[in-house]
Amino acid sequence: MANNPLQDITGTILLAGAGKMGGAMLTGWLSGGLDPRRVAVIDPHLSPEITALAARGVALNPDATTLGPVETLVVAVKPQMFRGAGARLKAFVSDRTSVVSIMAGTTIASLQEVCGGAVVRAMPNTPAAIGRGITVAVAANNVSTTQRAVADALLRATGLVEWVEDEGLMDAVTAVSGSGPAYVFLLAEELARAGVEAGLPEALATKLARETVAGSGELLHRSELPSSTLRQNVTSPGGTTAAALGVLMGEPGLRDLMIRAIAAATQRSKELAK
């Protein structure tokens, strides 16, 4: 049987922030085999689902004097709340602690200033809630091989992980994959709206749009073909799909809109990091 890196974790994992993303990570850890007794959660507004985990051994809102320094601190609070929460979190950090952040627009330097420790900056996305997320991570120079492996195991519990060496790429990563699910949901929304405009009943148009986007995404996931090839496979010369793509791929078209959208999101991520 293949080795499970989550089961090999021996230190304490402290999760700061158990909202949608933090809660999804915690669910992935426990279902993936991480010992609940090695997990602690800090959140002023614990959901009933998280509170119930105390019965399995998860420590809830522990005091630093009781818990002591942790092996890994995973920071999943809202970025605007981070500096306010940082003083409390720093009490759990020692020279041997790695700090894994999933906060958008929060730099390694900011994390080192507020929390200390060996910092891994990561950007997941919301499909992590169903184990189908993708996360991009970058490690500070003082992150050890072991610390990186633990961070990778924790992040991989909710989907794929890609590591980069250049932190400067994280703003564009945020714009493409971090914000990307919203673009896909907007596609489903507007496809349904266009269906209604074409004469379909709203309920039918909505179902057709949702299932088309979801099914196409699953096909893209399972296929090894490039997305351009999958698109071409649907498109008969002179047919209905070609007529629609003539609009979407025209000038200005979807390509121009997407370039502008990603540029705007990238710029905003840079502004938030200041």
TrEMBL record:
Its EC number is 1.5.1.2. NADP(+) binds at A76, V77, K78, P79. It is an enzyme of class 1 (oxidoreductase). GO terms for molecular function: pyrroline-5-carboxylate reductase activity. Residues 167-272 form the Pyrroline-5-carboxylate reductase dimerisation domain. It catalyses: L-proline + NADP(+) = (S)-1-pyrroline-5-carboxylate + NADPH + 2 H(+); L-proline + NAD(+) = (S)-1-pyrroline-5-carboxylate + NADH + 2 H(+). Catalyzes the reduction of 1-pyrroline-5-carboxylate (PCA) to L-proline. This is Pyrroline-5-carboxylate reductase.
